[in-house]
Amino acid sequence: MDARKLNEKMVEVEKLIKMEIIENDDKKFDELRRLIIDINDIVDQLKEIYSVTEGL
After folding, report:
1. What is this structure's pTM?
2. What is the C-alpha separation between 51 and 56, in angstroms, rounded?
3. How far apart are alpha carbons 53 and 20 in whole angstroms?
C-alpha cells in the first residue's frame, strides 16, 4: 500500500460524509466502516515501512 491508495480511501470517506448518505443506511455505514478499517490498515503498513527504512 502507498500514500496514493491511502489518499483514495480518504477521498471515498470524505465523499460519504459530505453527502450524508450514511444516515439511516446500514449498507453505507458498513461501507464507511470498511473504508476506515482499510485506511487504518494502510497507515499501519506505512508505519511499518517507515520504521524499517528509518533504520537504513
Report:
1. 0.60
2. 9
3. 39
pLDDT digits (tens, 9 = 90+) for 1-56: 577 887 788 888 878 777 766 667 778 778 888 888 888 888 888 888 888 887 76
Report the alpha-carbon distance of residue 55 to residue 9 in Å, rounded: 29
> At residue 34, what are phi and psi to the nearest 5 degrees?
-60, -40
Q: Give the residue carrying C-alpha cell 461501507.
A: 31
Q: Quick one: residue 24, left, alpha or beta (phi over 0 = left, psi -120 to 50 = alpha)?
A: left
Residue type, 4: R
